[in-house]
Amino acid sequence: MAMSGARQSLGRSAAAHAILITYTIIALFPVFVIVINSFKTRKAIFRTPLEMPDAESFSLIGYQTVLKQGDFLLYFQNSLVVTVVSLTLVLLFGAMAAFALSEYRFRGNSLMGLYLALGIMIPIRLGTVAILQLMVATGLVNTLTALVLVYTAQGLPLAVFILSEFMRGVSDDLKNAGRIDGLSEYRIFFRLVLPLVRPAMATVAVFTMIPIWNDLWFPLILASAEETKTVTLGAQVFIGQFVTDWNAVLSALSLAILPVLVLYLIFSRQLIRGITAGAVK
Amino acid sequence: MKKSALMLALLGSTVMGAGLAHAEDVTLTIESWRNDDLSIWQEKIIPAFEAANPGIKVQFTPSAPAEYNAVLNSKLDAGSAGDLITCRPFDASLALYDKGQLADLSGLGAMANFSDVAKSAWQTDDGSATFCVPMASVIHGFIYNKDAFEELGIEAPATEAEFFAALDKIKEDGTYIPMAMGTNDQWEAATMGYNNVGPNYWKGEEGRLALIKGEQKLTDDQWIAPFRQLAKWKDYLGDGFEAQTYPDSQNLFTLGRAAVYPAGSWEISGFNTQADFAMGAFAPPVANGGDECYISDHTDIAIGMNAASENAEAAKTFLEWVGSAEFATLYANSLPGFFSLNSAQIEMEDPLAQEFVSWRQKCNSTIRSTYQILSRGTPNLENETWNASANVIKGTETPEAAAERLQSGLASWYDPQK
Amino acid sequence: MALGSYKRPVRWHIAVFLAPAVAIYTAIMILPLFGTLQLALFTTVDRELVFVGLDNFRTLFGDVRWSDSFWNALVNNTWFFIIHMLVQNPIGILLAALLSSPRLRMSAFYRTAIFIPTILSFVIVGFAWKLILSPIWGIAPGILDAVGLKSLFAPWLGKEEYALTTLALISVWQFVGIPMMLIYAALLSIPDEILEAAECDGLSGMAQFWKIKLPLILPSIGIISILTFVGNFNAFDLIYSAQGALAGPDFATDVLGTFLYRTFFGFQLQLGDPNMGSTIASAMFLIILVGVSIYLFGIQTRLRRYQF
To answer: What is the CATH code for C54-302?
Structure first.
């Protein structure tokens, strides 16, 4: 009985690994193709797209072209500033609003919930002209502030939606105990509730971060100046300019993948730690 | 109330900011879709202008061609667009002029350097006002791999029969894909297909103007014939051409894997740097030897002034310079394949560009049939033609059905065709 | 509720909690958006806006040229959504369930790797898959050839009958990490006591998953479904970057987002029409609103919540 149980679980774990490995290969394959080909000569890219670069086909010409054009370091810095600041604002303001909605009964609560959820349903891109007019009127065109404001507004609805869902799951006894101890509502929020919804916060962070980092539209419209260009916009302009120069395009893509990958690998630990810390074990 | 006070305060600060900038140089910003040309503007054109005009700085800020119209319109509506606007031909720019967003440039001295035909793409329908300084036209035809043609013993074809005989021969030999074109991006089918070979059938300007006047219909034989030719192309395109993109086709040709490339002359500079074989070009073949030939010599690009520009004087200085023979020579030679519209004789060094431009002597020039007036309504004739040409090449729509559909779409909103 | 019954002072903290989010959201998102949506009730004649009531909607649904495009886009969009629900979410749940099994080795590696496509921009995803599926450069045909299935290859992105499904699967590839992560988080937050109790009752493995875990993660599955719905009906970027604004071949991949973009901003020679564009946007908005309302009022309230 015990023997067959062990064998069964061994078999099950082998099957689990097989599925996960297969899927991991599917997930990584396209990235792998882009990166290896970025180190090859033009002829080798087209002739043998699947082979690793070797002594004959190795070439850095693409990277040389990319680095000659445009200041990718500056672009990267811009993207980082915009993403981090917007993310912080979305998480802070979103969690506060979600707490208000999920914790208190007040007149218009569900209406307010619906109001804040409206934003998930219409692409903010439609408001482009009015947003641009607003930024022109406030002199914020071609500043990173304009992008931060737009992304904060864009990220809030989803953040409130997900966070209030999770906050409804936080035990009332805990909060009421805090109230009996004389904690203010602010303290209850920051000290008791926030730590408990950390996994949800991490989830929201990932959701919010990706579209901000990858957005092309608003940088193009609101901040296309050289000093405020983001990495995605820089790569796009570059791809447009060198559309047939695949060495350069693949190198630019690799360079655009790399920073966000590193960021994610760092962030991923936090994310998982957040998730597991939140789970009562 | 609060909002207007805020606006006032902010307006004050921007005006002050602008005042400060005035004390130094004036900076002109150019909006453009030619992101391919970024380095040529930065390295050649702008330095030449700045050297001759101290006190004026110029910035070239292109966006991708597909997004250009959307981005530009949003910026113009909100008031954040650059001082100089690169103009698409015909209605897109006319709409901007009608909205008061492009300035009237009829009074510009340099306008005298351009013929009426050159200016027609950037004028009001009655020709009373011109709002962009013409920069260049592009010519359609076919670029071919000279080495491959020599290897197979083929001459550049002049008639349709020779054209298909050549393609058959290449196909039979099997070393090369006869023709590099795909339908994934759709526009090549219309631009490098339909409007490339079409003028020979509808007799250039004669047919184009008759269509506008309503004297001919898209279902007339001369307008279906180009589709019939496109339907025959299918057999000569590479495997999986349905998913082949524009860059795919360019790469197929420049890597030496395809023998013929239905082209626009703008490809010349890119092909020159990427292809390591000799290239030649031939004009769209005519039906019978000795027939009058017609080419699409399309007025494609011009530059105008944002009516709201705060640097109107400097912008006009720049536009006068764009209209000069100096700019024309610089531009035509930096970007072989963009042919100057300036009346002055421009010397070009590139042999392939010379070949294209030589057709102006022996053939009649026209522009793309769908551009003037006929794409003003919904459904949009140009965009429909993309879709129809791609369908015809793939064989999912017959030439007759495609023409029928285009005609009924056009007739639905264009009175002379009703 | 302890606070509910007696008369209490104005609860300013509620306002303080809500104020920053509501202020930014209203100023930057809601006002501009409704400024745009109201254009649906107007038309432009000689540069003047003229109020026309619901005429634009009559055109959109009544004029065959508009309504054909609209229904085509809606049907395509629905198919796009169905593929995500049938492929993306089950795969996401499966992967999360495998990852959450307690003694699995290398789970951190898998988790990280599988989520990577989600962090890539549409520009990269579109380009990479076009390269792989390209009939010319031969990665996909080459692989199929190697396993002897070359005959199965077709230029999928260029064929009317396959293009949309192919794009939907690329989108699934890109976003499967999201349901995986959400479900993974939900599975981890199930207390051990419950699982131990289940094992005492002889429930383990698959049975445990179906009888114990699945009911407990239903709220998360609900959120994922509604996020998928909203995300899919707003989809635009992937199709735009892979197939262009005309959503070829022959509009086979046209979804509401690309139809809206073309109409609102214009494309090539087609001039932008903010009025008809806003009409389409309003229709999209209503579709999504109905879906979200069904979820909020019909489904969410019925899901049993587990408090941790």
So the answer is: 1.10.3720.10
